[in-house]
């Protein structure tokens, strides 16, 4: 992670935050675009779940991460707090790697 | 995190809630710090991300791409796309920000999920102003302290692989995704995004399959246009 990347990100994200207060004061986004703006993270997060679970570089790799995701999904369904979900995912994976 | 319309009566109640949300977000910040370390990002850079970028899901997406071997350009592009909802937040909280330009510019930095939810959920504009600023400031403090602590604590750990730190990423993304699936059409968009990424994994450079998944948004765009 380079400092340039951090600065570009910081400027880009701040520009998005400040655009509304500076340019759109007293107005609102067209309804169609508001829907897209709030939905935009959904496909990205779903894609990140898939790629982080079953790939290593360009290849599909099935390992302890898949059952770990299953446990994390159960924790999400049971509405466990964020940190608990993350720790259960990591913990399951670590346990499986220790055992097998 | 708090989506319900809060019944706030007094300033101390607003402040109490703001601190509670800050602490809860701090717990999430511990995960971010640990994930940054697992991705090979230094503590200084992890804290710089938290202080300067200051949007949890975006930060985690960026280091997720880096952990997956993606290039810096696709990591930044992914982060910026995840951050796009802040455009809508900025419009929504615009009336709650201070009127004077310097204060307004400073307050814009703390436009995040939590401060937007608390500010727009308050019963009056005055309380909305206080709730927005107090929540934003509280989350900022706890988020940065927790990033530092999480990064340093996990650095003390010997083998990230043996501890399953790589499995913490998909778990974190799933936990971020779940509440968003309540939006109409969101499950279909999520499924389409996952499918696009899966098809591209064998053929595209790391980072691109995730970025390309935003094409799934046509499902929403076309519907709203018709």
Architecture overview:
The complex is a heterodimer of chains A (100) and B (226). Chain A is mostly helical. Chain A folds into 2 domains: 1-39, no CATH class; 40-100, no CATH class. In chain A, 75% of the residues lie in helices and 4% in strands. Chain A is built from 5 helices and 2 strands, in the order αααββαα. Chain A has helices spanning 3-23, 31-39, 41-54, 65-77, 82-99, and strands at residues 55-56, 59-60. Chain A has a two-stranded antiparallel sheet. By secondary structure, chain B is mainly α. Chain B folds into 2 domains: 11-180, no CATH class; 183-226, no CATH class. Helix content of chain B is 72%, strand content 0%. Chain B has helices spanning 11-38, 43-53, 56-67, 72-82, 85-93, 101-108, 113-121, 125-155, 165-180, 186-200, 208-212, 218-225. The longest helix of chain B has 31 residues, at 125-155. Chain B is globular, with a radius of gyration of 18 Å. Chains A and B meet through helix 1, helix 2, helix 3, strand 1 and strand 2 of A and helix 1, helix 2, helix 3, helix 4 and helix 5 of B.
Properties at a glance:
heterodimer; A: 100 residues; mainly alpha; two-stranded antiparallel ribbon; elongated; B: 226 residues; 2 domains; 72% helix; disordered N terminus
Order of strands side by side in the largest beta sheet of chain A? Answer: 1-2
Greatest interface and its residue counts? A-B, 80 and 104 residues
Number-wise, the strands of chain A total 2
Which structural class do you get from the secondary structure elements of chain B? mainly alpha
Distinct helical segment count of chain A: 5
As a percent range, the share of helical residues of chain B equals: over 70%
Q: What is the number of helices of chain B? A: 12
Q: Spans of chain B with pLDDT under 50 lasting ≥5 residues?
A: 1-9
Q: What class, by secondary structure content of chain A? A: mainly alpha
